[in-house]
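Here is the promised in-class demo. Please do not try to memorize the tokens; focus on the logic of going from shape to residues.
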């Protein structure tokens, strides 16, 4: 049986460029395209089945997200995140998410609180099944930041999203991290339901700190491989 090509773009009504971007982004997050790997346009055209123009546009969009980097005289490569860069990103995440937790308690509607509970329950079900949870966690955070009602905060977080996603994917690869992460999210929701803004902020910060430890561990193991 011929193995399916996960980068192959299907001819659907959706915009081809969007499909190329999504497929390449996911390959980077899944580390099928490893940090430092050179991305050769001709090879990507063959893998995706689209035009060179579509590939170039996709690479420009991924560069804007920080997932790939154009290096003079070398071309485009998958962006590598150093341990120091990772520490700094986790520091920023910790502050932003602590603020998001406090704002959610202060401003979220009853509907948004219920949505946060449902988002957590979905993560818990996936965790029990051993299924990927990153997309479900994205949905959880979407509710959390929307409920806080601070557009400036959401904008800053959106700017960090792609770089943070690489680290989140890496941290979740550490054995036991998914289960612990889910428990930490439960602590956030418990604080929200109790109406305790400070506790929610602390739970959000603690979640990021634990993710940071796991991410840096995975990063060091990767660098030493």
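The designed amino acids, position by position:
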């Amino acid at each position: 049986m011929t193995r399916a090509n996960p980068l192959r773009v299907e001819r659907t009504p959706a915009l081809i460029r969007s499909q190329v971007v999504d497929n390449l982004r996911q390959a980077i997050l899944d580390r099928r395209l490893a940090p430092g790997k050179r991305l050769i346009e001709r090879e990507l055209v063959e893998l995706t089945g689209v035009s060179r123009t579509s590939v170039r546009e996709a690479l420009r969009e991924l560069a804007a997200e920080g997932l790939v980097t154009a290096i003079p005289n070398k071309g485009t490569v998958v962006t590598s995140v150093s341990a120091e860069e990772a520490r700094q990103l986790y520091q920023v995440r910790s502050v932003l998410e602590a603020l998001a937790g406090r704002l959610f308690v202060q401003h979220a509607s009853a509907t948004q609180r219920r949505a946060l509970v449902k988002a957590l329950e979905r993560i818990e079900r996936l965790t029990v099944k051993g299924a990927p949870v990153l997309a479900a966690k994205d949905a959880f955070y979407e509710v959390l930041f929307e409920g806080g009602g601070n557009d400036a905060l959401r904008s800053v977080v959106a700017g960090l999203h792609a770089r943070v996603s690489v680290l989140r994917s890496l941290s979740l690869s550490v054995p036991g991290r998914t289960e612990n992460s889910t428990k930490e999210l439960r602590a956030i929701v418990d604080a929200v339901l109790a109406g305790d803004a400070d506790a929610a902020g602390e739970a959000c910060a603690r979640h990021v700190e634990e993710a940071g430890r796991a991410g840096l561990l995975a990063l060091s193991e990767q660098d030493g491989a």
